[in-house]
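Exercise 7.
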Amino acid sequence: MNVSTLAFAVTCHQALGHPVRLRVLAALRDGRLCVGELQELSGLAFSTVSRHVSELERAGLVEQIKEGRWVWCRLAGAEAVRRTLECIWQQLAADPTLAADRRRAQRLRAGRRGPVCGATVGPCRDEVSSAAHHAAPAPKEIG
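Solution. The predicted structure, written as tokens, is:
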């Protein structure tokens, strides 16, 4: 085993050592999600979810892509990542929390309005509301 493979294995397994990060990875299994959708799915604070996603990104397991106002997350495409995660999926196939998260993630993806994040809570919802607000004509002042 060479040093880079050993370093990846150590970093990867450290990142896998937290239930929130395993939930994030499982939610991303079927496709990308916005950080706000991950927040809604997990029920955690936006900053907490963001911190866990950043840890997964540092480990090479997740990629973050900024598109307009949204930051999208997806599983990294490296073969080593896919092999590692397939082992995880097999071990956790019967976990009820991950199964429920996966169903919620599918509903969030189905509820999107075009390229806009489908979150109904948190900063993403505020961004969507703000964008709609700024697109609407300003009310006339009573004077």
